[in-house]
């Protein structure tokens, strides 16, 4: 791996180049390398393990960090990845608002992530891990309800709820949760959906959801939501 550091617009820019001399990839496969479950025929023939989610997850995380990733490859010669990421300088970090630097550690908080898409679930877990929370995953609304009924009352501090799911969608699951006759009825529920229109946000709130986050979820907006509900909870206590 080659690493280069430069300064641009008062930021530190890291330039990573990762090169291997492996089996490489055909040129016509490169446009699909960051697609979910995409695997070139040669990798399946050689029985290399994997489901084709690693690079899509990497690409999504780099996009969220406002970075770039590029790939070059030649069959039977190897592959080259180029990654660029920019970060605040130490002086800028010291000047960041205290709210943004003191709310990243939510150790001990329990979050139930309800998401049927495997890639979105992986990305969501990666994002949530940065806040040091404890995460459980439900693959649809029905599974969410069963987990809530199984776990101790009040175990979860917050639910991140996808909307469009098989078996039971997020709207129906929310209505059932709000009808509970126990503490679980008051758990903050955050809608996560690609439908980012104002009417979708209003509909989610009318059904009892507390917030509405558009997909792909922005890490700063997610941080603001967690800070709002978890810090509010501390003040209440």
Can you offer a commentary on this structure?
The chain is an alpha/beta fold and 237 residues long. The chain contains 9 helices and 9 strands. It has helices at residues 41-45, 54-64, 90-95, 98-101, 118-129, 141-150, 170-178, 198-206, 219-236, and strands spanning 2-8, 11-20, 68-74, 78-88, 110-114, 134-138, 158-162, 189-193, 211-214. The strands form 2 sheets. The chain has a 5-stranded parallel sheet with strand order 6-5-7-8-9, sandwiched between helices. A 4-stranded antiparallel sheet has the order 1-2-4-3. Strand 7 (158-162), helix 7 and strand 8 (189-193) form a beta-alpha-beta unit. Helix 6 packs parallel to helix 7 (170-178). The protein is elongated and about 65 Å long.
Separate helix tally:
9
Placed side by side, the strands forming the largest sheet appear as 6-5-7-8-9
In whole angstroms, the N-to-C terminal distance is 49 Å
Helix and strand pattern: EEHHEEHHEHEHEHEHEH
Spatial shape:
elongated
Major beta-sheet overview:
5 strands, parallel
State mean pLDDT (0 to 100 scale).
Answer: 83
The assembly state of the depicted protein chains is single chain
| Overall helicity | 25-40%
- What are the segments in which pLDDT stays under 50 over at least 5 consecutive residues? 96-103
The whole-angstrom Rg is 21 Å
Strand content: 15-25%
Work out the number of β strands.
Answer: 9
The computed structural class is alpha/beta
């Amino acid at each position: 791996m080659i690493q280069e550091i430069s300064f641009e617009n008062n930021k530190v820019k890291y330039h990573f180049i990762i090169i291997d001399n492996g089996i490489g990839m055909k040129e016509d496969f490169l446009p699909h390398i960051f697609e979910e479950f995409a695997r070139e025929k040669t990798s399946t023939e050689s029985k290399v393990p994997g489901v084709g989610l690693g690079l899509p997850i990497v690409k999504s995380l780099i996009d969220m960090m406002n970075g770039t990733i590029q790939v070059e490859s030649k069959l039977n010669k190897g592959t080259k990845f180029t990654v660029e990421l920019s970060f605040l300088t130490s002086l800028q970090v010291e000047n960041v608002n205290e709210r943004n630097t003191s709310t990243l550690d939510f150790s001990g908080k329990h979050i139930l992530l309800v998401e049927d898409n495997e890639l979105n679930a992986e990305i969501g877990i990666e994002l949530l891990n940065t806040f040091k929370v404890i995460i459980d995953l439900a693959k649809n609304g029905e599974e969410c309800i069963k987990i809530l009924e199984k776990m101790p009352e009040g175990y979860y501090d917050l639910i991140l709820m996808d909307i469009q799911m098989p078996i039971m969608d997020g709207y129906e699951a929310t209505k059932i949760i709000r009808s509970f006759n126990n503490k679980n009825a008051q758990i903050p529920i955050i809608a996560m959906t690609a439908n980012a229109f104002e009417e979708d946000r209003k509909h989610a709130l009318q059904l009892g959801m507390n917030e509405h986050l558009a997909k792909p979820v922005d890490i700063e907006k997610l941080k603001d939501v967690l800070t709002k509900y978890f810090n509010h909870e501390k003040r209440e206590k």
